[in-house]
Amino acid sequence: MPKITIIGAGAVGATAAQRIAEKELGDVVLTDIVEGLPQGKALDLMESGPLFGYDSKVTGTNDYKDIEGSDVVVITAGIARKPGMTREDLLKINTKIITDVSNNIKRYAPGSVVITVTNPLDIMTYVTLKTTGFEPGHVFGMSGVLDSGRFATFIAMELGCSVRDINAMVLGGHGDTMVPMPRFTTVTGVPITELMSQSTIDRLVERTVNGGAEIVNLLKTGSAFYAPSAAVTNMVEAVVKDTKRILPVCAYLNGEYGRKDIYLGVPVKIGRRGVEEIVELKLTKEEEKALGKSADAVKSGIASLNI
Ligand code: APR
Questions:
Q1: Which atom of ligand 1 is nearest to 78's Cα?
Q2: Considering only CA atoms, which residue is closest to atom 35 of ligand 1?
Q3: Cβ of 237 less than 6 Å from ligand 1
Q4: For atom 18 of ligand 1, which residue has the closest CA?
Q5: What's the CA gap between 166 and 181, in Å, rounded?
Q6: In this model, does residue 86 exceed pLDDT 90?
């Protein structure tokens, strides 16, 4: 069984542990800074095994030694933005957390593939890479899979069709500047540009871009975790089963898409070695411009870190 570690046993981390165990993708180690929390949730998940019929072992720990030998490490540790807190405050706090977590991954799980989930995603994934010193293909972030899932949901709701037939693509940074790609979003191979008016597409694109905020507004105290954990699970599955799926993820660019030393959402091939290939799409001028805007936002976030 592959060993899958999840750092941060909060809403996203614990639900990802549940999904991964239910799919028997591997044994799961859940870890958190809060004592008892990962142990309690892990035991609860273990006790679900006989009822749902899975043999994945789920263990909880506060000791990084227990992540030794992990094949995949998912980072969900961090804090969410609270009222009165600026983006810069959040950036500072989560950078500190991700640096600490990444140093431990470097020490105890040097052979792992790391998937970062903590926001602000593109910048936190950059911090993970620079702190671990891993090869860039081994460190990537969860963004486009979730955003495409949201886009696909809204398209299916609009067309009254099955979500199974939809293949959506969202590129760019994970935030206000993300770039949903209608030209590369299809229903059984038919681009949605053939199936909907431009104004309908614009409306669905806008809803996708605000997808995270829409949930926060409804929940009031908390943010999305079902779809984010589902996205994480898809990515973990692609790694441990070496599926070579093409998925939009937050990947390190070193010249691809005309950008260097930056993380940005692009389509990649995912397998046992992490990001095994970056797929370069030919973009229109308009798409290029939107991606450029997204890249600039990520760049300025990275620059503010002084690392
Ligand atoms: N080491 C380990 N765990 C930590 C640390 C740390 N240094 N700091 C915080 N944590 C843990 C918290 O104790 C908490 O259990 O991280 C967990 C975060 O869980 P939640 O607060 O429930 O947040 P969640 O909704 O899971 O989101 C986690 O994913 O999607 C992103 O924006 C989201 O950045 C956020 C992250």
A1: 9
A2: 118
A3: no
A4: 10
A5: 13
A6: no
**170 phi and psi, to 5 degrees?**
-130, 125
Decide whether any atom of ligand 1 lies within 6 Å of the 70 Cβ.
Answer: no
The ranges assigned to domains in the chain are 3-141, 144-303
The three-state secondary structure class of 257 is helix
Residue closest via CA to ligand 1's atom 31 equals: 118
0.70 exceeded by the pTM?
yes
How, if at all, do strands 186-187 and 72-75 pair? unpaired
For the domain spanning 3-141, the CATH number is 3.40.50.720
Backbone angles phi, psi at 174, to 5 degrees: -90, 85
Which among 143, 166, 144 has a CA at the least distance from the CA of 153? 166
Question: Nearest Cα to 120, choosing from 260, 264, 20?
Answer: 264
For residue 249, give both structure tokens.
């993820």
Q: Which residue among the candidates 19, 138, 150, 174 is catalytic per the annotation?
A: 174
In the residue annotation, 174 being an active-site residue is answered as: yes
Q: Which of 15, 18, 223 to mutate to test the pocket of ligand 1 (most atoms within 8 A of CB)?
A: 223
Please provide the CATH number assigned to the domain covering 144-303. Answer: 3.90.110.10
Neighbour tally for 176: CB within 10 Å: 13
Share above pLDDT 90 across residues of the chain, in percent, rounded to a whole number:
93
